[in-house]
């Protein structure tokens, strides 16, 4: 897996955090973390499918256990945009999703590369209400260009 510099840093931070908690880093666990750093957000089915390209035997139970473990360590967020499927992604202090309510497409705004949004505005808004922000999750809904053109 080829990482950009920021992605490599994120990956190392996560692995270090798990190591300090004496959590055993198996190949499958490392692969799931790397995959989610690269892919923004994925469903369990997509994670399993990707693992099967890399590993001969993928134990589905251990994939579920890994996802639970990473959720409990606050390394992952679980999102349900349509109330049905769960999308997993690397937890971030700044999470923004734009969803088309017509076709269900979800655009994930990457806080590392997005310059279209001033994240400090949310931090300042929270501070003005006396909240020292830890993280935020914004889910915005609308109709995408494709659906509007139909
Ligand atoms: Zn749409
Ligand atoms: Zn996402």
UniProtKB/TrEMBL annotation:
<dbReference type="InterPro" id="IPR043135">
    <property type="entry name" value="Fur_C"/>
</dbReference>
<dbReference type="Pfam" id="PF01475">
    <property type="entry name" value="FUR"/>
</dbReference>
<keyword id="KW-0678">Repressor</keyword>
<keyword id="KW-0862">Zinc</keyword>
<keyword id="KW-0804">Transcription</keyword>
<dbReference type="GO" id="GO:0045892">
    <property type="term" value="P:negative regulation of DNA-templated transcription"/>
</dbReference>
<dbReference type="InterPro" id="IPR002481">
    <property type="entry name" value="FUR"/>
</dbReference>
<keyword id="KW-0238">DNA-binding</keyword>
<keyword id="KW-0805">Transcription regulation</keyword>
<dbReference type="GO" id="GO:1900376">
    <property type="term" value="P:regulation of secondary metabolite biosynthetic process"/>
</dbReference>
<protein>
    <submittedName>
        <fullName>Transcriptional repressor</fullName>
    </submittedName>
</protein>
<comment type="similarity">
    <text>Belongs to the Fur family.</text>
</comment>
<keyword id="KW-0479">Metal-binding</keyword>
<dbReference type="GO" id="GO:0000976">
    <property type="term" value="F:transcription cis-regulatory region binding"/>
</dbReference>
<feature type="binding site">
    <location>
        <position position="100"/>
    </location>
    <ligand>
        <name>Zn(2+)</name>
    </ligand>
</feature>
<feature type="binding site">
    <location>
        <position position="147"/>
    </location>
    <ligand>
        <name>Zn(2+)</name>
    </ligand>
</feature>
<feature type="binding site">
    <location>
        <position position="103"/>
    </location>
    <ligand>
        <name>Zn(2+)</name>
    </ligand>
</feature>
<dbReference type="GO" id="GO:0003700">
    <property type="term" value="F:DNA-binding transcription factor activity"/>
</dbReference>
<dbReference type="InterPro" id="IPR036390">
    <property type="entry name" value="WH_DNA-bd_sf"/>
</dbReference>
<feature type="binding site">
    <location>
        <position position="144"/>
    </location>
    <ligand>
        <name>Zn(2+)</name>
    </ligand>
</feature>
<dbReference type="InterPro" id="IPR036388">
    <property type="entry name" value="WH-like_DNA-bd_sf"/>
</dbReference>
<dbReference type="GO" id="GO:0008270">
    <property type="term" value="F:zinc ion binding"/>
</dbReference>
């Amino acid at each position: 897996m080829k990482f950009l510099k920021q992605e490599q840093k994120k990956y190392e931070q996560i692995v270090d955090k798990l190591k300090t908690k004496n959590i055993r880093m198996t190949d499958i666990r490392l692969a799931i973390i790397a995959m989610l750093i690269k892919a923004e957000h994925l469903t369990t089915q997509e994670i399993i499918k990707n693992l099967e390209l890399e590993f001969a035997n993928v134990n589905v139970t251990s994939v579920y256990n890994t996802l639970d473990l990473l959720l409990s360590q606050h390394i992952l967020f679980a999102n349900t945009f349509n109330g049905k499927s769960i999308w997993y992604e690397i937890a971030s202090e700044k999470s923004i999703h734009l969803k088309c309510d017509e076709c269900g497409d979800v655009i994930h705004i990457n806080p590392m590369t997005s310059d279209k949004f001033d994240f400090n505005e949310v931090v300042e808004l929270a501070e003005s209400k006396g909240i020292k922000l830890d993280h935020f999750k914004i889910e915005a809904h609308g109709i995408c260009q494709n659906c509007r053109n139909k």
